[in-house]
Amino acid sequence: MSPSHIPPETLARAAPPGSSLDYALRLAPAHQREPLQAIAAFTGEIRRIPWHTQEAEVGRATLHWWRTELARILEGGGQHPLAAPLAAAVHEHQLPGAELRAILDEADRALDGDRPETFPEQLRLAERHAAAPLRLAAQVLVGDASATGYATALGSAVGLTRSLRLQGLAARYGDSDLPRETLRQAGVPAEGPLLQSDGTALPSLLRALAVQADAIAPLFPAARGQAPEDRRRVAALRPVTAYAALHQALIAEILRRGPAELIRGRLTLTPLRKVWVAWRGQP
């Protein structure tokens, strides 16, 4: 394997076969696929840290190492197996280091367990951090930053949907990032595990999850209203649009089946529906 290629196991962690990200990447032209895979793999490695680190200090040390490594990557160096393909993507597509650092900042916030106070605050954080990978992908696909606003709107909706999907697991460990205001209004304690072992908090938690799903759903059609007017750019952004459409379909499924499905496990779409939604770019 060439040193500039992404290790298959690293890519598989970020975009497992049959995942929404896997379907979206398959829609990218061959010459753009590897830089998109490098962005996806880097994002996946960073986002794994808060979830797979039991000690916050260990997670912070890992993120500190990655910040140093990213500085080397931006200079064309680096030691990690992802360094060469990511450095090549940065150089070829003039990817801003600030966007890659935003992915690290998101993981830092997750380690801190700092819940936003309100949904608008959570949305602003999603626009700043969670949308960064889609902004980078859009720059690769269209060749400049002209689709930044569109990618930010789609990426923040995607990020909030991804977070909501994980709430069943997060609620058991007290690291949910649901807004404090939403929790208070639903009668859920804002500190500690949201899902108590005796199940007494379950009805309140379901109300909070339903409120969150209702708040996220309108973000997708609003984001589509920011699509570029140039049809060629819209066509070039097909992988990004497909990825967002898959998450829009997921939020619709959550609304249809109810938030209890989030508690039971990671709600997902069938493979056939994923193929159909990704191909159409519409939920």
TrEMBL record:
<dbReference type="InterPro" id="IPR002060">
    <property type="entry name" value="Squ/phyt_synthse"/>
</dbReference>
<dbReference type="InterPro" id="IPR008949">
    <property type="entry name" value="Isoprenoid_synthase_dom_sf"/>
</dbReference>
<dbReference type="Pfam" id="PF00494">
    <property type="entry name" value="SQS_PSY"/>
</dbReference>
<dbReference type="InterPro" id="IPR000629">
    <property type="entry name" value="RNA-helicase_DEAD-box_CS"/>
</dbReference>
<protein>
    <submittedName>
        <fullName>Squalene/phytoene synthase</fullName>
    </submittedName>
</protein>
<dbReference type="GO" id="GO:0120545">
    <property type="term" value="F:nucleic acid conformation isomerase activity"/>
</dbReference>
